[in-house]
Amino acid sequence: MNKCSVCGHERNDHDMKCPECGSFYSKIAEIIAEQEAQEEMRTFRGRCKRILASDDVKQALLAELKLIWAGLTKKGVFALFVIFVFVFALVVSVL
Ligand SMILES: [Zn+2]
C-alpha cells in the first residue's frame, strides 16, 4: 500500500489526490517540479541562489565558475580570448 508523500495518509492506487491533505499523487507534478528546479539550476539567478545558499560562498563560487568553464566550448574560449586581447590592446594603446 502506498502512502501520501506529504502527510503519510494511506492512499488507494486509483486516487489522484490525497483525501487528507489534498496534495496530488500524480508523478507529473513531481516531474514538473523537478524540471523547473533543473531549469533554474542553469539560469544565472539559479546559480546565484545556489552560491548564496551555500555555507562556503567562496568555494561555491569557484565550483560554479569551474562548471561554467567546463561548459564552454573551444569556440567560446577562443571568443573570450579574442575579447580579452582586444581589451588589453585598447588599454595599452590608451596608456
Ligand atoms: Zn496527504
Supply the key terms.
single chain; 95 residues; mainly alpha; 2 domains; 4 helices; 0% strand; elongated; binds zinc ion
Can you tell me about this structure?
The chain is mainly α and 95 residues long. Helix content is 65%, strand content 0%. The chain is built from four helices and no strands. The chain has helices at 27-42, 44-53, 57-71, 74-94. Helix 1 crosses helix 2 and helix 2 (44-53) runs antiparallel to helix 3 (57-71). It binds zinc ion. Residues 4, 6-7, 9, 18, 20-21, 23 line the site of zinc ion.
Brief digest:
It contains four helices and no strands.
Topology:
Blueprint lengths: L26 H16 L1 H10 L3 H15 L2 H21 L1
Helix pairs in contact: 1-2, 2-3
Tell me the major beta sheet: none
By DSSP, the count of extended strands is 0
Order of helices and strands: HHHH
Radius of gyration: 23 Å
Label the structural class. Answer: mainly alpha
How much β-strand is present in the residues?
under 5%
Averaging pLDDT over every residue, what do you get?
82
Q: What's the total helix number?
A: 4
What is the 3D shape? elongated
In which range does the helix fraction lie?
A: 55-70%
- pLDDT < 50 runs, ≥5 residues: none
How many domains? The number is 2
C-alpha termini separation:
76 Å
